[in-house]
Amino acid sequence: MKDRHVSEAVIRRLPKYYRQLQELKKQGIERISSGELSVKMGLNASQIRQDFNCFGGFGQQGYGYQVSSLLKEIGSILGLDQRYKVILVGAGHIGQALTSYSGFARQGFDIVAAFDNDERLIGRQLDVATVRPIGEIAEFLTQNRVDIGIIATPKEVANEICELLTKGGVSAIWNFAPVDVSSENVIVENVHLSDSLYVLSFRLNQLRAED
Amino acid sequence: MKDRHVSEAVIRRLPKYYRQLQELKKQGIERISSGELSVKMGLNASQIRQDFNCFGGFGQQGYGYQVSSLLKEIGSILGLDQRYKVILVGAGHIGQALTSYSGFARQGFDIVAAFDNDERLIGRQLDVATVRPIGEIAEFLTQNRVDIGIIATPKEVANEICELLTKGGVSAIWNFAPVDVSSENVIVENVHLSDSLYVLSFRLNQLRAED
DNA sequence: TAGATTGTTAATCGATTAACAATC
DNA sequence: TAGATTGTTAATCGATTAACAATC
Fold it and tell me: Which residue in B118, B146, B162, B202 has the most chain A C-beta atoms within 10 A of its own C-beta, making it the best mutation to test that interface?
C-alpha cells in the first residue's frame, strides 16, 4: 500500500472510476484490464494504473483487475463503505431534489433533518424528514452528531449557515448556494452549477465561431 | 488578440473569474491588479495574466485591469453577452430548481418550454413555461430553434432524450441525469452531482484518518 | 511454459510559476 | 520622470504517457 501524494486530478477521477466499475458490475463483467478500461473511459491505460497505485496494487499481473474487489477498494477509498448523517438547510427545489434522490441514501448518506425559514415549508414532510425552522439547527446539532450539512439556501444567508453548521460540529459542507462559503476546520465543496453552464456556453460559441 | 490553444484548465477557470469580477463590480471596485486578484482568488498572479492573455491583452501596464471592461470581455468569451433558448426535459425537483433560479434567465438563458411524462406535472405552470408531454418535443423542435436542452430525467431515459434533442437540432445539452450522455454533433456537459459528494466524502475520511 | 498485464521507473509533455523588459 | 504592473519569455514543476522488467 503506497502513500504517495494524491493529486487533485486523481481525486476528481476516483468517482468516475467508481461509477464505471458499478456499471461493469451491473453488466456482469467480472474482470477488466487497464487497457479495456482506458477505452471505455477515454483515459490512458498507464494513467489508470498510476491512479490505482496511489492507493495500492489492486490488480494481478497477466490478469487485470477484478471488478468487484476494485469497486470495493475504490468505494472504501472514497469512504462509501460508511454511513453519514446529513442535514439539509434550505428545503426548496434543489434541496428537495437532493433529498428525494434515493441514490444518495443507498450510497450511505442519510438525511436526518431538514431546515428552512419559509413558513409554507416548515412542518412539511419531505421524503426523508420533516422541515423544521432554521432557528432549531443549533439545538439539533448539540443533540445529534452530524457529518455533512447541505446548504441549499439563497446566497445571502449561505455564509452564516456555514458558520452555524461549523460551530455545531458538522465536519463537511456541500454547498449549492451560488457563492463560495468557507470556514475554519470544515471541508467544503462549493458546487456552482452555473460554472458548468458557462463552460457549455463557451463551447457553443467556440463551435459557432468555427463555422 | 492571441489565438493560442486554450486548455481545459483555463476554460474551467473562466467562470470563476467571471463571478469574482461580478462581485468586485458590485462592490464598486473599478480597477484591480493581477496581484490583488490572485490574493482574492487563491491563484498565482502570473497564472491570471497568462489566462487572460490567451484571449488578448485586457490590462494596462502600470495600472492593472479595469473591472467593468474585463468583466465584459470575459462575459463575451463565455458567450454571456448573448441570449439562448433553452428547453427543459424532466420537470421534477431539479428541473424546477434550475428553471426557477432567476440568475440563469438574467444571464441570458431563457427557458422557452418544459416537458415531462408525469401526468401530474403535465399542464402545470412552472415559473417560466407550462409543462408539456415529452411526445411533443420533436414537433416543438421543428417549429422553434433551441440552443440548449437540459436533461433532468431519470437516468433510464436520459440517452434517448439526448438523441431526440440532437436530432431536433439542439446545439448543446446540460445533463443532470446520473449517467453520461453523448451524441454526435452536440456539446454535452454531464454534471454528476454525486461526484462532488464523493470527493467530499473522500476528504472527510482523509481528515479523520489523520486523527 | 508462453502470453498477458500489472506495477513502477523513466521520458515527455503541458501547465504553473518566476523573471523581466516593455510601457502606461 | 519614477513607480507600478502588464505581457511575454524562460524556468520549474507536476501530471501524463511510454517503456519494460516482474510476475501471475
Answer: B202
Cα–Cα dist B197/B203, whole Å:
10
3-class secondary structure for chain A? CCCCCCCHHHHHHHHHHHHHHHHHHHCCCCEECHHHHHHHHCCCHHHHHHHHHCCCCCCECCCEEEHHHHHHHHHHHCCCCCCEEEEEECCCHHHHHHHHCHHHHHCCEEEEEEEECCCCCCCCECCCCEEEEHHHHHHHHHHCCCCEEEECCCHHHHHHHHHHHHHCCCCEEEECCCCCCCCCCCEEEECCHHHHHHHHHHHHHHHHHHC
Q: What is the pTM of this model?
A: 0.95
Residues 27-86 of chain B whose Cβ lies under 8 A from any Cβ of chain A: 77-80, 82, 84
Whole-angstrom Cα distance, residue B155 to residue A22? Answer: 14
Cβ of A62 near strand D (under 7 Å)? The reply is yes
Strand order in the sheet with B172-175: B131-133, B109-116, B84-89, B148-151, B172-175, B187-190
* Of residues B119, B115, B148, B140, the one with CA closest to residue B130: B115
| pLDDT at position A4 | 58
Closest nucleotide to B38's CA, by C1' atom?
A: C17
Please, what sign has the CA dihedral across residues B55, B60, B64, B66? negative
CA distance A56 to A204: 41
> In the predicted model, is pLDDT for residue A188 greater than 70?
yes
Partners of residue A9 in chain B, C-beta under 8 Å: none
Instruction: Return phi, psi of residue A173, to 5°.
Output: -130, 130
Q: For residue A50, give the nearest of A104, A98, A87, A13 by alpha carbon.
A: A13
Q: Any idea which residue has 477509498 for its cell?
A: A77
* Cα four-point dihedral sign B23, A91, A85, A16: negative
For B10-58, how does the pLDDT look when each residue is reduced to its tens digit (9 = 90+)?
999 999 999 999 999 999 999 999 999 999 999 999 999 999 999 998 9
**CA atoms of A139 and A76, how far apart (whole Å):** 32
* Distance in angstroms (rounded) separating the CA atoms of residues A44 and B207: 30
